[in-house]
Amino acid sequence: MSENHSHKDIEQQVSEQQKEQEVQKSPSGLRIFWREILKDKLALISLIFFVLVSMIVFGISLILDLDEVVKIDPFAIHQPPSDEFLLGTDKGGRDVFGQLIIGTRNSLAIGFLVTLISGAFGIIFGVVSGYFGGHIDNFLMRIVDFFMVLPFIMIIIVFVTIVPRYSVWTFSLIMSAFIWMGIARLIRSKALQERELDYAQASRTLGSSHTSIIFKQVLPNITSLVVVTMTLNLAANIGIESGLSFLGFGLPEDTPSLGTLMSYATNPTTLEERWWIWAPAAALILVLMLAVRNVGEALKRAADARQRRA
Amino acid sequence: MSKSLFGKFLFVLMLAFVLLIAACNSDEGGEDSSDNDGDDTEQNESDDDDSDSDSDSDQELYSIDDFESYTGEGDAIDGGSLTFGLVSQSPFEGTLNWQFYSGNPDSQVLSWFDESLLQYDENYNVTNEGAASYEVNEEDSSITFTIEDDVKWHDGEEVTAEDWAYSYEVIMHPDYDGVRGSSAGFAYLEGAQEYKAGEADSISGIEIEGEKTITFNYTELTPSLLTGGVWGYPMAKHVFEDIPVEDMASSPEVREEPIGFGPYKVENVVPGESVTYSKFEDYWRGEPNLDEVTLKVVSPSNVANALETGDVDLVDSFPADQVVDNIDMPNVQWLGMTDLAYTYIGFKLGDWNADEGEVNYKGDEMKMGDKKLRKAMWYAVDNETVGERFYNGLRWNGTTLIPPSHPAWHDDSIETPTYDEDKANELLDDAGYKDTNDDGYRETPDGEELVINFASMDSSDLSEPLANYYIQAWDKVGLNVQKLDGRLHEFNSFYDKVGQTGEDDPNVDVFMGAWSVGYDVDPSGLYGRDALFNFTRWANEENDELLAEGLSEEAFDTEYRQDVYSQWQELMVEEVPVFPTLYRAMMVPANERVVNYDISVGSGVYLYELGVTQEEPVVE
Fold this sequence. Notes:
- The structure holds two protein chains of two kinds.
- By secondary structure, chain A is mostly helical.
- In chain A, 73% of the residues lie in helices and 0% in strands.
- Chain B is α+β, with helices and mostly antiparallel strands.
- Chain B contains 18 helices and 21 strands.
- In chain B, helix 11 runs antiparallel to helix 13 (421-430).
- The radius of gyration of chain B is 27 Å and the shape is globular.
- Classes of the chains: A mainly alpha, B alpha+beta.
């Protein structure tokens, strides 16, 4: 359906979409996506839940004092949930609720950032490669192949140990540097098809520049693919971040993230008796990932006319 | 449709799972609450949560004084067998010979079937209780040892003076590739270096006088000789004679069928995994109680479980961070002793001069050069609370650099700084560290910004909260302390940074480490001018003198030596190149059926007396 839009419509949409991509949790600019989500109740609930959690987490973390949350209190070690500590305290007497909020914020922020950075780079890389084809494509794809054979988790771990001080930003950059290849390959194969289509050929004959064809014509036409992949990647990236933090190679332990909270459960006693430290984080990871996935699945269906329910 | 159904299913499953965990937990909480009675330390911080008693078991307070190092005598049955757990992450190496072993796991395996001819008392001095007795001849700086008559190897041969001399010849042999041979017993032995260099055929300082008597001649007598310096392990010459020294460590006589003269003999070795011992009836102290002992490797994460199910009766050590959680285990008794170790915080005061092989103390140039600043940092931390809260009393406030595990040398009359924030502030103000630009942190007396880099190790679950706690405490007195590189460091990279290779990381200002100390109290290996392990790179003349005096011939007089080391401990409190933070308890669990076992040195309880009160381990 999107292909049937008039040229003007498309251009309008492009600018909207580009804005939307930065916050792809709400792809509402595309009516078709929106309709599919409205139709699928589970996806709708998931979307509402995800937006709600994000708002709560980012909202509360604005008021929370990070120094207060990570402050060690020897007199409150391993307290179970109570009025004072909603979700109890950990081995350093730190409030788990506060850590959960800030941890979720950090995990989500990393998830978003990594998806955006790796997505943006991967898309440009893929579309350029696919559009020009030939030697350029050959060369660029060998670079992708090279990055693909690297064991990226290992390399991220090594990087994290070398870089002396890192924050949410540097960590996101390190992660992005090694996971942009998937999306690049996907976009490239799509762009290969697009450039053979009449509109691209015609544009070229009429004298449009490559840049304008790539960004104003090819890219908008593969937006649906971009949105779907990035949504699904978001879930995966939150998972990778949590996994790395769990192993101790993510954010430092005193910068809470969902993974660091989970890693407390490596202590057998904490696992058996102090559920309040890790269970909320575990549940949140699971629910968040499911929610993002549900939305992603709905979008995927929307992008493919044969699977659409709406 | 099926996909969304599956999603719902997952969600429900997850909810059920969370609820299940919550339910399990509340049951456990109920059980725990029964053993909190009389725990008065809890009250001051839990005033408002009236019904919450779940966590109180975590806050219970223990003291090393509540634990004995001895299991008690009990009615041991005749015979019986016992399983000993060797707690280790990895398999043991299996170099089963005192001359060649290198790791603690191997030494645990060894101590069941072979022992030293020398026995030590609770102050780690050689006594005459062992298989050999000694006599010091001061006029010619020698020590004569006589081996008891009925000391026999497992194959029935006598343990002779010849065997003892042979172990020296092997260790000092030019082809010897083990790690022994640097202690005072070798360093001061006459003719040992010539032999090692290949210039002599035998060690001139060793005189064999008859089958069982041997005299070692030393260039100088030092008290270290009798506190672990003399090498007391003989080597069965009749077994090893024909093996070239360089092949010994890999020979079957070391790895598969090792020989000793201890209370149990090796029946079978499963490399890296387990060893079966049977009793050696001709053991020189008497016939051992147990028929059979099995040693097996248990991983630290399984050890609590293995003890609870009776899979092992006894272990060599127990992971410190699991002690408190398992202290109520019904079928074990906990043995405790003061560990020969302490945790400390050190200040970088110079660097290592590799050419001279000594420290290069730079005092005033360094960020931490001011004694008052260092002392204030000591006053600012509350180690008593750390010990009580993080370790439930099983670690406690350290005072001097000789831990109480050496009761004869530890001077507890010395006044050391204890937590006092006002005093810390006062000292800093005095020294000119004032907040001149109102950023909440003190600046140096010259008005420059002071950021102190703190290096700490990531060694246990508690490393991170502890490091943050100390940083917080210093923050309170206005010192801006940051973790080096913003994080903790892994064991080896930590010691690389503080200088185990001699290349100190110049960014480290303060660091937290731990030392375990040997039998010999002499601290020159850690704080001497020429000690690489003197990580603070601090030295002064008084220190040099005291350390030398502690090793002099006069120091053979215990009182004199005690006085020297008291002065030294005082000097270190005065100068604060490092300050001890925590002393530690070593806790070892034993099954209820184990009797006649003592984990401390010099208790007069020996391994051959070890017994069990029933055939099967107690399980509950």
